């Protein structure tokens, strides 16, 4: 409908001022609805195609035999001794109580009454002492033997020589995004990652609280996981070690609670690479092929993790932590 004209003081016709139109958010809501619909469909497809891991704990104790027995798409669950499990990414601490893991040492100190706050915890000493400046230092490669790319990448402990080539850039980008998001949400309660410092005081307290929550749950009610600790197999000359990709807190809590064997889920490819990594395939690892790491450097990292030969850092100034009596599942 055409607006009615008005006359001004000069007698000329003028149109009335236009009323601002309220912009509808209809299209924005339609876009959100479309994206939610796609996400719902993707989740449904994942759930439809997901297959639970095959439980082979009563079939074999040999991880490689379990690997060949299990369907490739499902993965398998097998019992693993803690001294054959590795934690803290590329640092590769043994999961045994005396293996040097800052998580396990902190819980043992708590169990023995020597740690009640973050201030007096081995975890705090670790974060204050182990502060690599770049990826080369995280992988324990001396700067003189590291290229500019390694020296320029941030300290990401889950990037290992057998990680996928695309994973390096992808995970670095995600980590920076996570730091920015945590900074906005938690103020000083964030860290680049949980496996090295520096971290804020608040983050350290949050990490200790998380550890204690898991530990108390296991001590009070036993270990009844909704899902198992996930890990990858490292194979050298027919022997296997297990590198945890998800469940480092639980592994430390189980060690401190006295368990000596725990179930592990070896699934598909994840942030640490393929489900099974053979040392003899080093020349085919993408990071070696790209020249980012020399073959001897990649093998040295593999062997250090396999043998749990991470050097004892200065934070480990207490040898008072003692192992606890073993406790079966």
Binned strand content: 5-15%
**SS-based structural class?**
alpha/beta
Tell the overall outline.
globular
Distance N to C terminus = 80 Å
Quaternary state of the chains: single chain
Spans of at least 5 consecutive residues with low confidence: 319-329
**Rounded radius of gyration (Å):** 27 Å
How many separate domains?
1
- Overall average residue pLDDT: 80
Helical percentage: 25-40%
Count of separate DSSP helical elements: 11
DSSP, total strands: 10
Order of helices and strands: EEHEHEEEHHHHHHEEHEEHH
Largest sheet: 8 strands, mixed
Ordered list of secondary-structure elements with their pairings:
Layout: E1 6-7, E2 13-14, H1 26-49, E3 54-55, H2 63-69, E4 76-81, E5 85-87, E6 93-94, H3 102-111, H4 122-129, H5 135-138, H6 148-152, H7 165-186, H8 201-221, E7 229-236, E8 239-246, H9 248-256, E9 261-266, E10 276-278, H10 286-290, H11 295-307
Parallel strand pairs: 3-4, 5-8, 7-9, 7-10
Antiparallel strand pairs: 1-2, 4-9, 5-6, 7-8
Helix pairs in contact: 3-9, 8-9
């Amino acid at each position: 409908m055409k607006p009615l004209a008005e006359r001004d003081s000069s007698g000329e016709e003028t149109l009335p001022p236009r009323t601002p139109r309220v912009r509808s958010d209809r299209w924005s809501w339609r876009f959100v609805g479309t994206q939610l619909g796609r996400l719902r469909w993707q989740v449904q497809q994942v759930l439809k195609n997901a297959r639970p891991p095959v439980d082979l704990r009563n079939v074999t104790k040999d991880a490689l035999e379990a690997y060949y027995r299990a369907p490739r798409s499902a993965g398998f669950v097998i019992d693993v001794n803690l001294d054959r499990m590795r934690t803290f990414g590329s640092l590769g601490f043994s999961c045994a109580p005396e293996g040097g893991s800052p998580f396990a040492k902190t819980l043992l100190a708590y169990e023995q009454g020597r740690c009640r706050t973050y201030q007096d915890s081995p975890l705090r000493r670790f974060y204050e002492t182990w502060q690599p400046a770049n990826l080369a230092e995280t992988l324990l490669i001396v700067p003189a033997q590291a290229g500019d790319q390694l020296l320029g990448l941030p300290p990401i402990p889950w990037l290992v020589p057998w990680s996928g080539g695309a994973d390096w850039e992808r995970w670095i980008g995600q980590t920076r995004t996570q730091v920015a998001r945590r900074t906005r949400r938690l103020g000083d309660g964030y860290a680049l990652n949980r496996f090295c410092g520096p971290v804020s005081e608040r983050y350290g307290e949050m990490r200790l609280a998380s550890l204690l929550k898991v530990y108390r749950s296991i001590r009070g009610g036993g270990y009844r996981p909704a899902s198992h600790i996930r890990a990858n197999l490292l194979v050298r000359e027919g022997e296997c070690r297990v590198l945890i990709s998800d469940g480092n807190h639980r592994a430390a809590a189980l060690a401190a609670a006295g368990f000596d064997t725990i179930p592990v889920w070896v699934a598909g490819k994840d942030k640490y690479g393929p489900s099974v990594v053979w040392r003899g395939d080093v020349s085919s690892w993408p990071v070696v092929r790209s020249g980012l790491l020399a073959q001897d450097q990649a093998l040295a990292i593999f062997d250090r993790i396999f043998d749990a030969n991470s050097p004892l850092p200065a934070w480990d100034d207490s040898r008072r932590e003692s192992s606890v009596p073993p406790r079966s599942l």
